[in-house]
Amino acid sequence: MKRFSSLLIVIFSLALPACGKTPPLTPQEQQTVNALTTNLIPRCVGRHLIDLPAGVTVKGSATVEDARLETKIMSLDAFNKEISAREAELKAVKSMDAHPFLYLNLPAWDEHSRYFMHRGSERSH
Are 116 and 105 in contact (CB under 8 A)? Predict the structure, then answer.
């Protein structure tokens, strides 16, 4: 039994240094990595800045307490048109009582961000 344990220790001690070693990149792989990392642009992902290649399109979404948040790249003029259209759409919804359907339309963190707070589904009022 002692001999078997010693043999296992020797095998593991010889095999362990090989774990975690990555082979060096081939010249083609190195060329690809160099091309991707020469022109990096910092992008904000949550609270982190990550350097990404210039040609990468950042897009994503999240769900926070059943509210779906999505990002979409657009010009400031297109953004303002969409915000105005959404505000008009929400203001046009008639409530069953005297209270307006849309009760908040404010900047989120700067003048180029908005959030709307309304009384629920447009179909229910």
Answer: yes
